[in-house]
Amino acid sequence: MDIGIITLFPELFSAVMQYGVTGRTVQNEQLNIHFFNPRDYTTDNRRTVDDRPYGGGPGMVMCAPPLVSAISAARKHLTAPVHTIYLSPQGTPLTQERLTQYASHTRLLLVAGRYEGIDERVIENEINEEISIGDYVLSGGELPAMVFIDALARLLPGALGNDLSARQDSFTNNQLDYPQYTRPAEYHGHKVPPVLLSGDHRAIENWRKKNAEQRTHTKRPDLSPIT
Ligand code: 4F9
């Protein structure tokens, strides 16, 4: 899979590119990440990427021309068509279900904004989909883009070394995961539920199913499990 990223701060992405499961997918080239920095597509001596909002008000807005030039360069490099996603609080909430769909796309382009946002005309003309990772405001789209990449990379074939663990994750079937335990079997007087030590696989499966349903109901009553 190829992912292009439009960002003023490509260095931030070392967090996902150099560590853990996501780092391994980059190392294996299951995931190829390509950066395009709008700063590199400016034409003035000061390399300006932002300006004051028309109509007044606080903060700055990312200008269309360097952003669109960076997007065009990315499309050319990735060979169009590329599904282009802008990470923003105005977007559709990201879900595990949507991520499983993106995992079969071969080319994605993520646009990370800074400041108060990007010129609306870029959204109208260049963006296929706006995605939000939650109802809060960050100082830029880079962290949401990294959240997106992390959640996606672990779904790529072979990324986990264990395909079962992806299917049993929280939110698969719109349900939370069951409780997990490991050694020691007793910790400060707290015992692991005995059924998990019983070796009775049917009983264990029933216990996990029941507990996943129970905790989804109590902790996340807004979720409707798919059974
Ligand atoms: C993007 C917040 C996606 C939540 C981008 C400031 C953002 C965001 N989900 N906040 N820039």
Kindly describe this structure.
With 227 residues, this protein is of the alpha/beta class. It contains eight helices and nine strands. Strand 8 (186-187) and strand 9 form a beta hairpin. The longest helix is centred in the last third of the chain and has 19 residues, at 201-219. The structure holds 4-(1H-imidazol-5-yl)pyridine. Residues 87-89, 113, 132-134, 137-138, 140-141, 144 line the site of 4-(1H-imidazol-5-yl)pyridine (4F9).
Provide keyphrases for this structure.
227 residues; alpha/beta; five-stranded parallel beta sheet; two-stranded antiparallel sheet; binds 4-(1H-imidazol-5-yl)pyridine
Write the layout of secondary structure elements.
Layout: E1 2-6, H1 14-17, H2 20-27, E2 32-36, E3 50-51, E4 61-62, H3 64-78, E5 83-93, H4 96-102, E6 107-111, H5 120-126, E7 129-132, H6 142-153, H7 163-167, E8 186-187, E9 190-191, H8 201-219
Parallel strand pairs: 1-2, 1-6, 5-6, 5-7
Antiparallel strand pairs: 3-4, 8-9
Helix pairs in contact: 3-5
Bound molecules: 4-(1H-imidazol-5-yl)pyridine.
What is the structure about, briefly put?
The protein is an alpha/beta fold and 227 residues long.
The portion of residues assigned to helices is 25-40%
Order of helix and strand elements from N to C terminus:
EHHEEEHEHEHEHHEEH
Q: How many helical stretches?
A: 8
Lateral strand order in the biggest sheet: 2-1-6-5-7
